[in-house]
């Protein structure tokens, strides 16, 4: 079997990977035990590189299109798949051993994925501020320009210490207070009881995003919430996915 190719965004952290969208695909590939290689693409090179290989752009909620990562290329089938959720579905359909979508759960897990995105959004300026610090120089320059344009603010104004930063921390804590409520409704260690699923991949990759972008003391703060549940959850999920 030829290795699958995952297109990802590099950084200066160990191993390079950090973004939750691309890391979701990495977790699923690892969980299924599929061989894969990484093709690193700097932020400003995503559109030309994806055009070059023929990858379709992602559709935004407003109807516009934009090239994003992850993209997965499977030389065994010729498939070229965009979007982390679609990649997970493709991998389950094409390589069904060790599924990440238990029977009839795809719609439910998609709703969970959307819920995480919506809950993290109020803290995105704080997370963007920290993400800039770990990116490679070329990507960091592009990241700053595009984020300042998007938010119509200078980077230094994104999450100043004080009430604004406190609001961002409150939003992050709410994310995992809600996640704990979901977990508490099952008897096992995972969101679907004793069955590991893409719901756990979503949770773990958000945690990994925070661990890899936030400063050490900030990550320790999150890892300690709910009696250390989230630090343990990430460790267990990484072990499950052989990362």
Molecular structure report:
Helix 1 (20-32) packs across helix 8 (198-213). The protein is globular, with a radius of gyration of 18 Å. The protein contains 9 helices and 6 strands; from the N terminus they run βαβαββββααααααα. Helix content is 56%, strand content 9%. The model has no long low-confidence stretch (mean pLDDT 95). By secondary structure, the protein is an alpha+beta fold. The strands form 2 sheets. It has a 4-stranded mixed β-sheet, covered by helices on one side. The protein has a two-stranded antiparallel sheet with strand order 3-4. Helix 1 (20-32) links the parallel strand 1 (4-8) and strand 2. This is GST N-terminal domain-containing protein.
Give a brief rundown of this model.
The chain is of the alpha+beta class and 243 residues long. The protein has 9 helices and 6 strands. GO terms for molecular function: glutathione transferase activity; maleylacetoacetate isomerase activity.
Architecture of the largest domain in CATH? Up-down Bundle
What is the helical fraction, as a range of percent? 55-70%
Note the gap between the termini. Answer: 21 Å
So what's the overall shape?
A: globular
CATH class of the largest domain: Mainly Alpha
Strand order of the largest sheet: 2-1-5-6
The total count of strands amounts to: 6
Major sheet size, sense and barrel closure = 4 strands, mixed
Whole-number tally of structural domains: 2
Mean pLDDT level: 95
Structural class call reads: alpha+beta
The amount of beta strand, in percent, is 5-15%
Tell me the series of helices and strands, N- to C-terminal: EHEHEEEEHHHHHHH
- The number of helical elements comes to 9
Query: Cα-atom Rg, whole angstroms?
Result: 18 Å
* CATH fold description of the largest domain: Glutathione S-transferase Yfyf (Class Pi), Chain A, domain 2
Any low-confidence stretches, pLDDT <50, length ≥5? Answer: none
């Amino acid at each position: 079997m030829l290795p699958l190719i995952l297109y990802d965004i590099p950084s200066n952290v160990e191993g390079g990977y950090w973004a939750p969208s691309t890391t979701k695909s990495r977790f699923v590939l690892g969980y299924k035990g599929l061989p894969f290689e990484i093709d690193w693409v700097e932020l400003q090179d995503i559109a030309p590189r994806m055009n070059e290989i023929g990858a379709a752009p992602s559709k935004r909620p407003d109807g516009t299109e934009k090239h994003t990562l992850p993209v997965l290329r499977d030389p065994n089938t010729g498939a070229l798949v965009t979007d982390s959720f679609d990649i997970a579905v493709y991998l389950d359909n094409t390589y069904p051993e060790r599924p990440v979508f238990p029977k009839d759960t795809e719609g439910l897990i998609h709703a969970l994925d959307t819920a995480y995105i919506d809950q993290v959004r109020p803290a995105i300026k704080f997370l963007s501020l920290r993400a800039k610090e770990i990116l490679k120089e070329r990507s960091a320059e592009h990241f700053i320009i595009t984020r300042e344009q998007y938010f119509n603010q200078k980077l230094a104004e994104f999450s100043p210490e004080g009430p604004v930063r406190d609001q961002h921390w409150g939003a992050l804590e709410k994310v995992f207070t809600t996640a704990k409520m979901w977990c508490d409704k099952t008897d096992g260690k995972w969101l679907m009881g004793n069955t590991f699923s893409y719901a756990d991949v979503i949770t773990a990759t958000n945690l990994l995003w925070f661990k890899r972008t936030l400063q050490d003391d900030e990550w320790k703060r999150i890892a300690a919430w709910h009696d250390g549940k989230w630090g343990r959850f990430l460790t267990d999920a990484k072990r499950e996915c052989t990362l």
